[in-house]
Specification:
A 3-stranded antiparallel β-sheet has the order 2-1-3. A two-stranded antiparallel sheet has the order 4-5. Strands 6-7 form a two-stranded antiparallel ribbon. The longest helix is centred in the last third of the chain and has 19 residues. The chain is an alpha+beta fold and about 210 residues long. Helix 5 crosses helix 8. It is built from 8 helices and 7 strands, in the order H-E-E-H-E-H-E-E-H-E-E-H-H-H-H.
Length: about 210
């Protein structure tokens, strides 16, 4: 972990010139599931690194880990953003990350966007014609609905509620924790951290924006 920290420091330019904040994106995959991505922000690199080091300390040594540094950000009106998308020459070839808020609570990495074909080419576009005429498959109100549904699902299908934990050998020990329902009710530290961080981010974004 010390080598990873030093490698980031050696890269330099750790602070976003526009916001004067340090923003790092941590991606973790257990090799069987899509990577969990979380953005960490702070006034100094050490502040941000402390949060990341805590997560990595509880992450399996067999996991795949990647760190991205946000070195610059540009505020775009939606119209200008869509114009840039329209000029993409290749399908699923957007070369930047995107955040739908200033604090990176709803940010997506370039690899997430292209890996999930978040920006779609027009129906008229054909491979090799030089113009994808891409467009963004999102609406902000819809994103808010998805955030709410996802958070509700985490609580209903991933939290050890009393009516679920009561069937375990020591119910009281599990209540309030989290589990992966689609993986035989697996309970691990990294699962709990991902669930909890998602709910905390949802709470902060929804109720504490002011």
């Amino acid at each position: 972990m010390k080598k990873l920290k030093q490698a980031l420091i050696d890269i330099g330019n750790l602070q976003n010139d526009a916001s004067q904040k340090v923003t790092l994106a941590l991606s973790v995959s257990d090799k069987r599931h899509r990577a969990s991505v979380k953005f960490y922000r702070g006034d100094t690199f050490n502040d941000v690194w402390q949060s990341i080091a805590t997560v990595l300390g509880a992450t399996s040594n067999n996991s795949w880990v990647r760190l991205d540094i946000v070195q610059g950000a540009q505020v775009l009106a939606r119209k200008l953003f869509e114009e840039k998308l329209f000029k993409i020459t290749k399908m699923n070839f957007w070369r930047y990350g995107v955040s739908f808020d200033a604090d990176f609570r709803t940010a997506l990495l370039e690899t997430e966007i292209n890996g999930q074909a978040f920006f779609k080419p027009s129906k008229e576009s054909r491979v090799g014609d030089g113009h994808a005429n891409s467009w963004a498959d999102y609406e902000v109100p819809v994103l808010h609905q998805l955030m709410h549904r996802r958070s509700l699902y985490e609580i209903q299908a991933g939290a050890w509620l009393p009516e679920i934990a009561m069937y375990l050998y020591w119910p009281e020990k599990f209540v309030g924790g989290f589990y992966a329902r689609d993986d035989n009710f697996r309970t691990r530290i990294d699962d709990s951290e991902h669930f909890l961080s998602g709910l905390v981010n949802y709470y902060n974004y929804t109720y504490r924006q002011a």
